[in-house]
Amino acid sequence: METASFSAAAANGAVGSQRDRSLVPERLQRREQERQLEVERRKQKRQNQEVEEEKSDFFAAAFARERAAVEELLEGGESMEQLEEAAARLQGLQKLLNDSVLFLAAYDLRQGQEALTRLQATLAERRQELQPKKRFAFKTRRKDAASAAKVESASGALAAEGVLASPPPLKEEGGIGSSWVFGFSNVESQVLEKRAEELHQRDVLLTELTKCTVRLYGNPNTLRLAKARNCTVLCGPVSTSVFLEDCSDCVLAVACQQLRVHTTRDTRIFLQVTSRAIVEDCSGIQFAPYTWRYPGMDEDFEGSGLDRSKNNWKDVDDFNWLARDMASPNWSILPEEERMIQWD
């Protein structure tokens, strides 16, 4: 009996040793597979880095070349045709920058945008210099007074109806390119509009508006909306950045390269953006695709340099919410049944 038990134990021990020996190659094989995967991962990471460096080098060379060409046109431009060529090249530069957002470092992106802004300001100054001077003509004081009375009367009638033909423009601050900053300020319960010829590549600032509807038909360079309450703002394609600050209970429809929303609450944003939107110190922000349309929009998109096929409207970074495994409570996707808005 003891002999049989000993034989069985020996047999089990032999089986166990054989199993242990068979597990060794499996562990080695698994370890080798993990090592190969890690080598492949590092190789792929290195290749991706090389590709990004190549893209960055290509961007730097192409941007510098086109920038020099635009500067030469602006310095020696003695005709509107030369300035129009400079404007067309500037649009190409803007598109190059827009298409490079995903791989450019933040510093390079900021430097590129600042260079474009300076060139656009110089272009505006050169256009102003080449415009024909208005002929001076004397007018009687009585005629001027009568005209002023008519304008004041008409403005009062429009204001009574809730429409302001020429609302108070924003005061322009000094500095380079300040003539290109304009907008509306301190207006309540009005319908405000700007057309393409007024907006083209200008920096628009809307501040302290209450219960207003703003329609911006055209292609601004930047748009900033601050301290707005219960407003609807509809804007054509913005070449660079859109900023919202200290707004509440608003609706915004805009296409742009970058969007940043700060200290804003309970606002719906109908968005087309080529990079990722950013929210900070916000709550109740809802996003949906850009759906506003107006005659001439195709031309404005072409002039803006934005890629209409690229829309990251639902890719949002919340600077106050760093958890990757949980959605931010500060913004959400607007349900489809709530996206049907009568714009006009």
UniProtKB/TrEMBL annotation:
UniProt-annotated stretches for the region Disordered: 1-53
Biased composition (Low complexity): 1-17
PROSITE patterns the UniProt entry points to: C_CAP_COFACTOR_C
Subunit structure, interactors included: Supercomplex made of cofactors A to E. Cofactors A and D function by capturing and stabilizing tubulin in a quasi-native conformation. Cofactor E binds to the cofactor D-tubulin complex; interaction with cofactor C then causes the release of tubulin polypeptides that are committed to the native state.
InterPro entries to which the protein is assigned, alphabetical: C-CAP_CF_C-like, CAP/MinC_C, CARP_motif, TBCC, TBCC_N, TBCC_N_sf, Tubulin-bd_cofactor_C_dom
Classification via PANTHER family: TUBULIN FOLDING COFACTOR C (PTHR15139), TUBULIN-SPECIFIC CHAPERONE C (PTHR15139:SF0)
MF GO annotations: tubulin binding
Protein name per its UniProtKB record: Tubulin-specific chaperone C
Compartments where found: Cytoplasm
GO biological-process terms attached to the record: post-chaperonin tubulin folding pathway; tubulin complex assembly
Organism the protein comes from: Suricata suricatta
GO CC entries: cytosol
Biased composition (Basic and acidic residues): 18-41
Keywords annotated in UniProt: Acetylation, Chaperone, Cytoplasm, Phosphoprotein
Pfam families reported for this sequence: TBCC, TBCC_N
Record domain C-CAP/cofactor C-like: where: 169-321
Family: Belongs to the TBCC family.
Domain of life (superkingdom): Eukaryota
Keyword Disulfide bond: no
First-listed, main subcellular location of the protein, grouped into a coarse class: cytoplasm
Function: Tubulin-folding protein; involved in the final step of the tubulin folding pathway.
